[in-house]
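We emphasize that the prediction below concerns an isolated chain of 651 residues; any contacts that depend on oligomerization or on bound cofactors are therefore not represented. The input was used exactly as deposited, without trimming of termini.
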Amino acid sequence: IVGIARCSGLSLVENEILPQCWEQISHKHVERRLLVAESCSALAPYVSSTIRNSLMLSMLQQMLEDKDDSVRDAVVRSLALIVTFMDDKDKYFQCQELSMATLDDMSPNVVGSSIRILIPVLAKWALDLGRLQSHLLSQLLQRLKTLIKKASPAESPVSLSHRKNTNNEQKAAWLVTVLQTLVPYIVMSVAAVDTIINRISSNTPIVERQEFSVLGHGLTNPSVFYEGEYDVGLILGSFESYVSQEWYEDWPELEWICNTLLPELVDILKDIELSQELIVSSFIKLLKFFCSCFGNSFTRLKVQPLFVKKLQHLEQRLMDVGQGTNWPSLTIVPLYLLGVISSMQDDEANEELCVQLKRFLCALPVCGAALDCLVMSLQGLCKEVSYQECVLNALWEGVVHPRPIVRSAAASLFAVIVGNMPHQLVATRIAPALVTLASDSDMSVRTATIPAFGTLITNTAIKEVHDKTYMQLQSFLSDQHTRENHPMLLQLVATMGQLINACEAWFREEIILPQLAGIALYALQLTNQTRKIDLAIALVEAFSSAVYCNLSKQTISSALLPGLRYLEQISGQSLPSHHDTVQAMIKGAESRIEVQRPNERAGSISLAAATANVGQGVEDMKQRVSKIFQNKPAVNRPTNLPNIPGIFRKK
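Result of the prediction step, given as a token string:
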């Protein structure tokens, strides 16, 4: 077709080929419709602008509703080429609406092509026409607000299906990605103005933004789409120098960013829940990319103050919770730490990051707030080597804090970061900190360390760390106060169940299974039905992990089966919903050994006997790791508490 068009001229293409294409746009075979969509881009250079702006655009508009994803994907690509050739500015609004329609498509491939190809081409045209901020970005912001509200769990009606809500969340995340794609255009719309360009001189530094190329293609790189007189690096250098001044006069494009775009984006955050991970992660990427592209000076002067103000408001909301108000959204915490502060990557930013982490760590537990926002923040920060030391310093502040609730929070957060830290830091910083907390005078703090010790086994392969952990867990199990503390006993059972397939064989057979059997007997003898059922449910979960792991016949007959039979009695009496599961586990265990007659079965194991064995194990382990605790860190807890009303304020 292209060969014919090249040799025949406009007349044949417009009067013969295009009418044939028009007749095929509703053909029953997808291959024909796909050929039409691809032909539009192939023939675009060989037709007049009038035909391109009318007939071709109409054909593509109609085919955007095709039922086949591959056809719509080809339409998006052809539409991008048509927009590139477009010379009629009156058609801009039609092209913008068509582009918005592609973002509503249910196919990830179609939306992906739109974000990678069509939207950047449209943004270039909008930038040239002076409509980037006033039309394209404004419409995207409005659509994003609407979708965020629709996707919000709090706003969604009970009858709204989970699938529909998930679709809204996905669409909102795509729109945030669109805004991220447009950041280079936003930067140039602000920087490539007379106020900045007129300041360029021989002394102007050249600023290279590697971030402009991270999207993986050249369409969004200013060096590709910007057609001005000066090099992009010079313009960015002049912009950086200008906004670094103590005082400077704003201009319309900058005012729109500072007074409209940024405040509206920050305001949207209040409607986002941490559970909406897709949207949250998209926003973090957007903010980090935005701040990196605009530079540290702009971020500190224009972006950071907006978040500080919101955090101060959050502080007040947290203080008012006790007076009957609802819990505020804490989504802004990881967005600020991961999206704004971590983007600057200098000493001042590192210091600010440490200060904020310590404040949040000390404040949120005291207020009774959930730690999900800190979990997300720490997981993100630990992935970057430059922030790992900062994270550990902040958590150590929690280790030595005078309030048990803060020390418990620090212990639980260590469990979150173990898998993201290098082994050297796990051995020298995390394990010693957990050992310190494990000897805490407060039982709730000691209980909070148990899951963290479990992660040391499941997420590391350091023998020294494993030895520390085995000894500490045995110490917990042999403590006579363990049975008296129901939360601690539940946590030990849950952690042993998680460890049973990851720990060494001797620990599994000599410690975990005898202990689980002993705890099952203890649960059977409990008179408190609530505690009995709690323990039974935890034991079912733990034993379900034990039934199919590698065990000796001796351990199966002397520990696993007795424990399961105790559990069978409990489930028969108090937990009928789990009775069949327990019986199935007993059959599975019996199938692995030669079933003994009842009078030949191993005697019942008592919790006291199991504890005695563990006590001996502790002594043996102490000999193996006696040197490990020589350098146990000292704990110097401050006696004065921080001023809670000022915990979120930037110093």
